[in-house]
Design brief:
- The strands form 2 sheets. This protein has a 6-stranded parallel β-sheet with strand order 3-2-1-4-5-8, sandwiched between helices. A two-stranded antiparallel sheet has the order 6-7.
- By secondary structure, it is an alpha/beta fold.
- It is globular and about 45 Å long.
- It is built from 8 helices and 8 strands.
């Protein structure tokens, strides 16, 4: 069996997208999964070159049945990272919907007992977020968004993180755990 990889899914949020791509660029053996919105937003924010420079395999949400999900059944991944994760994706995952590539990846990771690390965009009542063309805006997540993050954080084999430092540490701890078992 080939060496297991890290699966990294990106949704359509610009919130800490630059920083997520920076962490991604430091990792090896990663497959990237882009939602339809992620593919759009990466271009809108001018981050396509950053994504391309990572030299990771990239899968895009182009099929109704989320065909790349089958890679989870084949045991190709040790961990799923979803960063950044929009409030829409968080709500769908918290309520068991799997109607897109990213939500399908999360569902199948859970069903195949692969741990997930999720950077949720809406984790505080007030946050600053990078908007297109590099200006910063204040965002005020709704209570339902905060509640959905809390609900998802209670799921088995799911670690929800609220900042880039915690995301990086969680990923490296998980990679070290996987390496120590091999």
């Amino acid at each position: 069996m080939q060496k297991q990889r890290l699966a990294w899914a990106i949704t359509g949020s610009g919130h800490y997208l630059r920083e997520s791509l920076a962490i991604l660029s430091t990792l090896e053996n990663v497959d990237i999964f882009l939602s339809k919105a992620a593919a759009e937003i990466i271009k809108q924010y001018g981050f396509q070159a950053m994504l391309d420079a990572s030299n990771h395999r990239v899968y895009q949400d182009k099929t109704a049945s989320s065909v790349p999900v089958e890679l989870f059944y084949e045991g190709q991944y040790h961990t799923l990272v979803i960063a950044p994760a929009t409030s829409n994706t968080i709500a769908k995952m918290a309520y068991g919907f799997s109607d897109s590539l990213v939500t399908n990846l999360y569902a199948q990771a859970g069903k195949t007992r692969i741990p997930s690390i999720v950077f949720a965009c809406d984790t505080a009542p007030e946050i600053e977020s990078e908007a297109p063309r590099a200006h910063v805006v204040k965002v005020y997540p709704r209570q339902i968004d905060l509640d959905n993050v809390a609900k998802l954080a209670a799921f088995e084999a799911t670690k929800v993180v609220a900042d880039m430092a915690t995301l990086s540490v969680a990923i490296h701890l998980r990679i070290n755990e996987v390496l120590s078992k091999s």
